[in-house]
Amino acid sequence: MHPMLTIAVRAARAAGQTIMRAYTELDRVEVSAKGINDYVTNVDKEAEAAITYQIRKSYPDHTIVGEENGENKGSNSDYIWIVDPLDGTNNFVRGIPHFAVSIAVQHKGKTEVAVVYDPVRDELYTAVRGKGAKLNDFRLRVSKINDLSDAIVGTGFPFKAKQHSETYMKLLTSTFSQCADLRRAGSAALDLAYVAAGRMDAFFEIGLKPWDIAAGELIVREAGGTVTDFTGNHGYMSSGNIIAGSPKATVAMVKSFRPLLSDALKR
Hints:
Largest sheet: 8 strands, mixed
Number of helices: 8
């Protein structure tokens, strides 16, 4: 096993234990607003601290970028750990059992190691660049669908970027008219993992952050999938606009999206 994957898995499981302890006593969870429709709990912070502790034990000089604590600089800037300690906080707070820990390791800007851990189901999605993706110990492959008409497509509403609502509804309507059905589950990291596992055939969302995407996109690519931005290029880490899926599903969605994009979403 890749040594950094070993540490990432250990960190994800430690965060998962913190989250599940709190999940049994949700009435004690402290919730505060970071912004409009954007919430953080004491559990997010405790889970991020657990992850940071595990990383720092083995790699004290690496940089850690977390959703809650921002950039925790190390002396070695070639290695960056991108961490979302609890992706799906709104689900967690309301007792909806669909959320995940997301950890990615980048070396000189390329994601090398990825972990998405669902502590409710004890499902561990992992990938190492060039070595494939796994769910627990089983190899992952994206679905083999040839046509969007057979596809289950996941999405997320742009609830933090409602200025894109009108365009998003056009994209949603176009996709729904072509696919078999849609899902909106509330955790982008898990949605991407589900695409890698073939549980969904594609996924799209507007305005995600690097910690939402970094681990999931490598897992999808290592499972044989394609990941692009809305224009079919590779700017999704900076724009946060992402399409991921089986190669044919992704191509079909990019083609249907292009004429519907506002200028703001063409970048």
